[in-house]
Amino acid sequence: MAASSALVLFSGGQDSTTCLAWALDRFERVETVGFDYGQRHRIELKCRETLRTKVGKINAMWSERLGDDHRIPLAALEDISNSALTSSMAIEMADTGLPNTFVPGRNLIFLTVAAALAYRRELEHIVGGMCETDFSGYPDCRNDTMKALQTALNLGMEKRLVLDTPLMWIDKARTWQLAKDLGGKELVDTIIENSHTCYLGVRGDRHEWGYGCGICPACDLRAKGYRTFLAQEVRNLAKSLPSNHAQDGGSKVDDT
């Protein structure tokens, strides 16, 4: 296996785009994989190509490192699930205590298929945007699940695959900040303009944080995170200003 290579689970959303930038910043060869499982927000699949191109152009090193993209159909996941992400049912809490946007086994299947692909492509790391901080309680996003799955995949394939989850312990505001740290304003603007998060697949209204319905749980989480990120940016700017500038509202010209 290549000593510095990765396969990124790249859906076309904010988190996976940030993870792609994270991987490009660290590994010498990076490939991406997306899954078509009949998701309600399939428009995210159309966002992937534009996002990949734009992210790859942010700097020359990323462009050199960005390799092949893979798109894998997983229609069976839609057939066996009963979720608001694979049907037009209203988004609400289920009797299980989880939101009905939970697709049972989705990340387990994604990562297993990704591991098989990584095996064939001789890629060492698999990078995903799973997060235990800002999430809806999905059990297949938890760190314990990722650790157990990594062990199972390594045992079942007799390979040393590493599951990297760079967003696991950060909230949405810090995810926006991570994007800025990695790719500056250009990456943040690319995520705003070209990524898709909305569960309903709506691309109509342009909000300050991007496109979406503005009311589903995914839009709400993304919007709140962005506003917190902006507020922190303002606070950081205020701290960086000279004390007389902060007090007087600007610098003064000395006429003497």
UniProtKB/TrEMBL annotation:
<feature type="binding site">
    <location>
        <begin position="10"/>
        <end position="20"/>
    </location>
    <ligand>
        <name>ATP</name>
    </ligand>
</feature>
<feature type="binding site">
    <location>
        <position position="213"/>
    </location>
    <ligand>
        <name>Zn(2+)</name>
    </ligand>
</feature>
<comment type="pathway">
    <text>Purine metabolism; 7-cyano-7-deazaguanine biosynthesis.</text>
</comment>
<keyword id="KW-0067">ATP-binding</keyword>
<keyword id="KW-0479">Metal-binding</keyword>
<feature type="binding site">
    <location>
        <position position="219"/>
    </location>
    <ligand>
        <name>Zn(2+)</name>
    </ligand>
</feature>
<keyword id="KW-0862">Zinc</keyword>
<keyword id="KW-0547">Nucleotide-binding</keyword>
<comment type="function">
    <text>Catalyzes the ATP-dependent conversion of 7-carboxy-7-deazaguanine (CDG) to 7-cyano-7-deazaguanine (preQ(0)).</text>
</comment>
<comment type="similarity">
    <text>Belongs to the QueC family.</text>
</comment>
<dbReference type="GO" id="GO:0016874">
    <property type="term" value="F:ligase activity"/>
</dbReference>
<dbReference type="InterPro" id="IPR014729">
    <property type="entry name" value="Rossmann-like_a/b/a_fold"/>
</dbReference>
<dbReference type="Pfam" id="PF06508">
    <property type="entry name" value="QueC"/>
</dbReference>
<keyword id="KW-0671">Queuosine biosynthesis</keyword>
<keyword id="KW-0436">Ligase</keyword>
<feature type="binding site">
    <location>
        <position position="198"/>
    </location>
    <ligand>
        <name>Zn(2+)</name>
    </ligand>
</feature>
<feature type="binding site">
    <location>
        <position position="216"/>
    </location>
    <ligand>
        <name>Zn(2+)</name>
    </ligand>
</feature>
<protein>
    <recommendedName>
        <fullName>7-cyano-7-deazaguanine synthase</fullName>
        <ecNumber>6.3.4.20</ecNumber>
    </recommendedName>
</protein>
<dbReference type="InterPro" id="IPR018317">
    <property type="entry name" value="QueC"/>
</dbReference>
